[in-house]
Design brief:
Blueprint (H helix, E strand, L loop, with lengths): L4 E4 L5 H11 L7 H7 L8 E5 L3 E13 L5 E12 L8 H16 L3 E4 L12 E3 L2 E8 L14 E6 H14 L11 H13 L5 E7 L2 E11 L9 E9 L2 H13 L5 E7 L5 H4 L6 E8 L2 E4 L2 H7 L8 E6 L8 E6 L2 E4 L6 E4 H8 L5 H6 L4 E2 L4 H9 L12
Parallel strand pairs: 4-5, 11-12, 15-18
Antiparallel strand pairs: 1-2, 2-3, 3-4, 5-14, 6-14, 7-12, 7-13, 8-9, 9-10, 10-11, 15-16, 16-17, 18-19
Bound molecules: acetyl coenzyme *A.
The site of acetyl coenzyme *A has 23 residues, from strand 4 and helix 3.
């Protein structure tokens, strides 16, 4: 359909993008006070608009880096503010925006794209696969204590929000990253600033200082302190630790704050070790597991050669990518690396399914059993499980 045009928006048009996007997700426009912060979350040149001639659809991005299994980092974009005006949906506007955005990323040498999806049925057709998952849990702070043998040491420093926004970005940058973690560019911290300033109770941060300097932090605020009788929940919006000692130290602090009934952590890695630290593991309760990041391999060859692999017999994976056809073809995956090959494929899959196994979140065997991978060599699924498997669960921890 071509009765609309797609173009990159100027900075002065960003507020219209925000208004349109918020309308599509049934939120009111930002007021002037919020827009002071929200505007800083827009990367110049990062927003696309669809016009007919009014603005009827948007999609935007910011540049970042993604950590892949093995620790290498490659360029990614965080895709956000995707919305099409309700009276212009289902006529190809999103498809045109996604196509233009991905082609631009490919031309710029971006290797990945990440997003958080409003609905699970939208993005698979554009090559995005669910690549990280997270779990939420609540800990009964009145009851929970860490085991006496839990790691201890280091110092804790409590910061108000202004100071936290100065200090935490540097601590984050210095931490080792899991597969799936992104760098946090300035625009992302501006988003978090906006969100944290919105709370009616003060947001705080606690930084853990280990032998080599700051090695972890948690950002939180407490809800419920104004109602009587009160039931307070300390909500953890960020928690990153570069060592087991920092992780235990941050939790020990959070669980020891007075007048807190519950500590809620919404989006933690699937293998977050909190239960192992609690003296009574039933003082914490997993509330649910949910989607986290959807990943698009924009440059399949570069993505496959960037990550590390486990030990197993080599496997040839044939990939199909209708949207970015240059990615289609066969790739030889070995413990020493990956690259294009003419050898016959043991596994065939689309680029969406490849994204699901890329960070190790889903196994090729499970996806083959689900009918999403065509198996041509019966030995290939088990070998691919070992090649693509990771030691720690992939997780991003960054939301936008
Ligand atoms: C990263 C983020 O920002 S997530 C936020 C996404 N935004 C929203 O959820 C806001 C509310 N929804 C919308 O604004 C729109 O309905 C959008 C953006 C989801 C879809 O926009 P449209 O212009 O209607 O999509 P378009 O017509 O290009 O459809 C492309 C394809 O996606 C499908 N599709 C569109 N929306 C959905 C949906 N919500 N669920 C499942 N499939 C969908 C279409 O059926 C079409 O399928 P096809 O490839 O088989 O033909």
């Amino acid at each position: 359909m071509s009765d609309f045009e797609i173009r990159t928006l100027d900075t002065e048009e960003h507020r219209a993008v925000s208004n349109l996007f918020r309308e599509t997700v049934h939120m009111p426009p930002s007021d002037d006070a919020e827009w002071v912060y929200a505007a800083r979350y827009y990367q110049p040149g990062g927003a696309l608009g669809a016009f007919d001639p009014e603005l009827i659809g948007t999609a935007r991005l910011f540049d970042a880096e993604l950590t892949v299994p093995g620790g290498a980092r490659r360029p990614t974009v965080g895709v956000t503010s995707v919305g099409v005006r309700a009276d212009r949906t289902r006529r190809g506007v999103l498809r045109a925006l996604m196509t233009a955005q991905l082609e631009d990323c490919a031309a710029r040498g971006v290797v990945f794209a990440n997003l958080l999806a409003s609905e699970a049925g939208i993005y698979g057709r554009f090559g995005y696969g669910l690549a990280t998952r997270c779990r939420s849990y609540r800990v009964d702070a009145r009851r929970a204590r860490l085991r006496p043998d839990a790691p201890a040491g280091g110092d804790l420093e409590l910061l108000d929000l202004d100071r936290a926004l100065e200090v935490c970005p540097g601590v984050y940058d210095g931490l080792e990253r899991r597969p799936g973690m992104m760098s946090r560019p300035e625009v992302l911290w501006r988003l978090y600033e906006m969100q944290l300033r919105r709370h009616t109770t003060p947001a705080k941060a606690v930084v853990h200082h280990g032998p080599g300097g700051p090695d972890g932090f948690a950002v939180y605020h407490v809800e419920g302190a104004t109602a009587h009788p009160w039931t307070t929940t300390l909500e953890v919006s960020d928690l990153f630790a570069g060592s087991a000692t920092a992780y235990a130290g941050l939790w020990r602090f959070l669980l020891g704050i007075d007048l807190v009934d519950r500590v809620a952590a919404e989006s933690r890695p699937l293998d977050d070790p909190i239960e192992l630290l609690l003296a009574d593991h039933r003082s914490g309760k997993v509330e649910g597991i949910s989607d986290e990041h959807w990943l698009r391999l924009v440059d399949v060859g570069e993505a496959l050669s960037a990550r590390a692999y486990g030990h197993a017999d080599p496997v040839v994976v044939e990939v199909t990518d209708p949207l970015l056809p240059g990615n289609s073809g066969a790739y030889l995956i070995t413990p020493d690396g990956a690259g294009r090959t003419d050898r016959p494929a043991g596994l065939r899959m689309d680029v969406t399914t490849l994204a699901m196994i890329y960070l190790g979140t889903w196994t090729p065997s499970a996806l083959a059993d689900a009918g999403r991978i065509e198996v041509r060599d019966p030995a290939a699924p088990a070998a691919a499980d070992l090649l693509f498997g990771t030691r720690v669960a992939a997780w991003s921890g960054s939301y936008f």
